[in-house]
Design goal:
By secondary structure, this protein is an all-alpha fold. The protein is built from 14 helices and no strands. The chain has helices at 2-41, 72-78, 81-101, 103-114, 118-129, 136-147, 153-160, 172-200, 204-212, 217-242, 250-255, 261-264, 267-277, 281-308. Helix 5 (118-129) packs across helix 8 and helix 8 (172-200) crosses helix 10 (217-242).
């Protein structure tokens, strides 16, 4: 009994000593914890709006349950033609971003790493990641001025070579290609920084050993650089797959127009049009909840597959 009491007393003393030494770190941690609690977790209580008949004059706890055991608005969403178009467009645009845009920063990082002139490498890196700091409203304005069918600078130059105007922003097929291209241009430089940081962590002796074994430049990239950054590639790929049903609002909304509405309307714009402007809060909450759940499922599946293949994963 005495031993147990002494052990408890010793643990309490150790805890007091630990807190007296590191209390400042816990004090600093209190602010982000308060932020996430107030602005992230407390608002999550309103998820139940998706399962209730929304009323402006009632508390969310007082609202009655919607029909079909609370799934009325989920059923309405999948019966809504505009939502199905938005779901299709969201998946299509995100898959294209993943297939075309995901390898782009990897390739750029490998090219920058192989540059012999370090000054040129720094200048190029600065130039390519600067678009990340431009908002999509600014980028959309630039795109309209540069890519307009008759007055756009690009089409004027093409016309000098006898090439007919290309409807970059007015034809659905051309709009999708422009959307993906502008997305790559805006984000490729910023994502390249992550891969360059991973490359710098590779042991230089591995490159020397590969060179002694007769590996050329491409051989060193294939057998040293790519395996060295593979964990980073896998983690970013998992995160990208987790966003496969997610959709940013500003990019499709800024680049979209009436001529390409059937291709530019994604889940985020559907929620804005029907929820914020149409006041269908229960319907759009159900859509947002469905989107979040599917994204979490994709994230967990991608993480499980990565672990199965021998990588660490993120969960």
């Amino acid at each position: 009994m005495i031993d147990k009491s002494a052990a408890r007393s010793r643990r309490k003393q150790d805890l007091r000593n630990y807190l007296s030494r590191y209390w400042t770190l816990y004090l600093m941690l209190a602010l982000p914890l308060a932020y996430f609690t107030v602005f992230k977790y407390v608002p999550m209580t309103y998820i139940q709006i998706a399962f209730k008949k929304y009323s402006l004059v009632k508390s969310v706890w007082e609202m009655p349950l919607a029909g079909n055991h609370g799934f009325e608005y989920f059923i309405k969403a999948f019966a809504n033609r505009d939502f199905l178009f938005a779901l299709r467009n969201t998946i299509l645009l995100n898959v294209l971003d993943l297939v075309v845009g995901f390898p782009a920063p990897i390739v750029l990082a490998l090219l920058l790493n192989e540059l012999a002139f370090r000054g040129l490498k720094k200048v190029t890196q600065t130039v390519v990641y600067m678009p990340h700091f431009l908002s999509w409203i600014i980028i959309a304005g630039m795109a309209v001025q540069l890519l307009a069918p008759t007055s756009g600078f690009v089409n004027i130059i093409l016309g000098r070579f006898g090439i007919p105007p290309i409807p970059f922003l007015n034809d659905p097929t051309h709009w999708v290609a422009t959307y993906v291209t502008l997305g790559i241009w805006q984000s490729v430089g910023w994502n390249t920084i992550i891969y360059l940081a991973a490359i710098t962590a590779i042991n230089p002796e591995l490159y020397e050993s590969a060179a002694i074994d007769g590996a050329g430049r491409w051989g060193r990239i294939w057998h040293v650089t790519l395996p060295g950054i593979r964990p980073t590639i896998v983690i970013l790929l998992i995160l990208s797959l987790g966003r496969i049903l997610g959709s940013e609002f500003d990019r499709p909304y800024a680049l979209g127009n009436a001529l390409v509405k059937n291709n530019s309307n994604v889940i985020a714009t559907f929620v804005y049009i029907n929820g914020v402007r149409g006041l269908q809060f229960a319907l759009t909450t159900a859509v947002g909840l469905f989107q979040s759940v599917v994204c979490v499922v994709f994230l967990l599946v991608a993480d499980a597959l990565a672990k199965k293949s021998g990588e660490r994963g993120i969960v």
